[in-house]
Request: fold
Amino acid sequence: MRSIRRIRGNESGQAVVEFAIVLPLMLAILCGMLDFSWLYLNTCRVRFAAYEGSRCAAMYAGIYSPGELESAVAGTVELNLPDNVTDVSVSVAGNGDCITVTAGCGIPTLTFAAAAAYGRTYTASCSYTAFCGGGNTGQ
Reply:
């Protein structure tokens, strides 16, 4: 009976064992927070790039030919995207009154947390439609 009390009363390694159990969970949560905030930031940048592209398309729709307009929009979108993206795609579609600009790109993940959910590259895309008002009147 005495030896059982002595074994139960010995808690010298308890904190180390609890820390070893909790550490992987804490690291996974931390990596997840970092990765998902990184992806959210870059998704907001893609959204802003699509907005700027649609703004450029609305301003120059009556001035440029369709090929020149798509080139100008693609340049504006790529200028506003972050440097770390891959596979940038820009498409311009519309009639004379409305132009829709769609921007998409691949964003590399930072840690294993988002890589497990999305793979090594997360694809972000956004579309904006701009009203041209019948083209530029030159005023």
About this structure: The first strand starts at residue 86 and ends at 94. The CA atoms of residues 86 and 106 lie 5 Å apart. Confidence is low (pLDDT under 50) at residues 135-139.
